[in-house]
Amino acid sequence: MKGDTPHGTELLNRPGLNKGTAFTEDERTTLALHGLLPPQVESLAEQVVRAYEAYQRKKDDLERHIYLRALQDTNEVLFYRLLLEHIEEMTPMVYTPVVALGCQQFSHIYRRPRGLFISYPLRASIRTLLRNRPNPEIDVIVVTDGERILGIGDQGAGGLGISIGKLSLYTLVGGIRPERTLPIVLDVGTNNVERLKDPEYLGWRHERVTGDEYYDFVDQFVQAVKHELPDACLQWEDFATPHARPLLERYRDQLLTFNDDIQSTAAVALGAILGAVKVAGTPLKEQRVVMLGAGSAGIGVADFLRAAMQDAGLSHEEARRRFWFVDKDGLLHSGRTDLSAEQRVYAQPHERVSAWASGSNDIALADVIRKVEATILIGLSSAYGAFTEGIVREMARKVERPIIFPLSNPTSKSEATAEDLIRWTDGRALVATGSPFAPVSHGGREIPITQCNNIYIFPAIGLGLVASHARRVTDAMILAAARALGEKSPALTDPSAALLPALPQLRDVAVHIATAVGRQAQRDGVAPKTSDAELRERIAATQWTPAYPS
């Protein structure tokens, strides 16, 4: 270790430097650790075995989440090595779906600080708060205001848990060095009555700040980031629909920033759709897409899918007309007066659809499926069970290989279960889900269920941005990421395989996607020009692997 390494208990309390029982005898002597550790010296591999045994003894998912978070705050190399060796089992514990429970219980399971709480009462001191960050050099920031955490809504300051979990995957999959990540929550209060009444709630006890005061506060934060960390990537996480896209559009040309819910969700969905379309055998430009949920995530998926259709030869208008959006009030059409500007883009002409309703005046999802003969059905509505047996069977009656993606998470918000979708379509549906589902047995075979998880995209985008020294994130870069993911679909060579690669392959897939992102950044003029070989070298040098320094 370097000469400026802290000694004794100070060293053991630094998770980025602590090796625990793996400190050698010489290191224990040099660093004043004798007596502070058990006498047995272990290798990292032995520590992983010990840590996994402890993990297996935990009785439920919340305890497993707490254990892993405690390990992260004790020894980061061991934490990431353990995750890497058990990635399929443990990723759901540090990210979706269990991180939602961690956010709900944040104040009750809080152990030690990680990241920054930037609360509204301290709005005059945001630059000072940023200077208090644990490490001076930061590559990636994940910021949330805690208002729309996954499918469970407003968690206030507890939303910091999603920023922590997200950045864990930037490191695990993308290889961003853990000390160069910074989770942040913008605590503008909460409208969650349960949190406000909870005597243990650790956030600012106040109803949410709204309107100009809210946007002024966010602007103060962004300006502080631009001044203090001008080269860092700022990723927006779980902002409510009314704020998500306006904030992205306001700042995307000012600094290196993107919104995971809008852009990563769209990219991973498109990557899976590109694989599914190949298996189904119908060209992309001939697909008819029904979307349940017209929030920022759903609109984002449609925007990128529409762009891909245009690349396949359709005009803007032709592509736009191949989408039918349904929200809680029914089909989006031009006769509705409650639509946002983004939603109006996809509104169908009222005169074309006015006779579709079979019951009330609202044109329901079942009506749309009946009339449209949809080939793709995507759910981002958080409406559990909305893809009913009748709807799915009607779709499968008209389409040989229906593509059905219930993408809402956690599982309690999923529009359908994978097992039901396979059963109702007699095994013909091409399914990707937002939450993890086990393979489904049908007709004497095991059908793998693809989890259409943003983990495939955002860590790779982060790696590409950092390695290429990008200054901005363009739509073309996100589309390049989606296409690169689609190129890795196992279904391209085996139609019975999953639509997306297995999780143990993620780090290799991330390199492929990061390379595509970096190349597109150079083509778009937002990153310095390099040769392909130099870009690959930069990516390899950037990608950190959890191992103790020799």
Question: What does this molecule look like?
Answer:
Helices cover 45% and strands 10% of the residues. It folds into four domains: 1-42, Hemocyanin, N-terminal domain (Up-down Bundle); 94-255, Rossmann fold; 263-453, NAD(P)-binding Rossmann-like Domain (Rossmann fold, 3-Layer(aba) Sandwich); 456-542, no CATH class. It has 25 helices and 14 strands. A hairpin with a 2-residue loop joins strand 12 and strand 13. With 550 residues, the chain is of the alpha/beta class. The chain has a seven-stranded mixed β-sheet with strand order 8-7-6-9-10-11-14, sandwiched between helices. The chain has helices at residues 8-12, 25-30, 44-56, 61-72, 76-85, 87-94, 98-104, 106-109, 126-131, 160-172, 193-197, 211-228, 241-251, 260-280, 296-311, 316-320, 341-344, 350-353, 365-372, 389-398, 418-424, 458-468, 475-487, 506-523, 532-542, and strands at residues 116-119, 140-144, 181-187, 233-236, 257-259, 289-292, 323-327, 330-331, 376-379, 403-406, 430-433, 440-442, 445-447, 450-451. The radius of gyration is 24 Å and the shape is globular.
Structure at a glance:
The chain is 45% helix and 10% strand. With 550 residues, it is α/β, with parallel strands linked by helices. The strands form three sheets. Strands 8-7-6-9-10-11-14 form a seven-stranded mixed beta sheet, with helices on both faces.
Helix tally equals 25
Q: How many structural domains in the coordinates?
A: 4
Shape: globular
Portion in beta strands: 5-15%
Strand arrangement, largest sheet? 8-7-6-9-10-11-14
* Amino-to-carboxy terminus distance: 8 Å
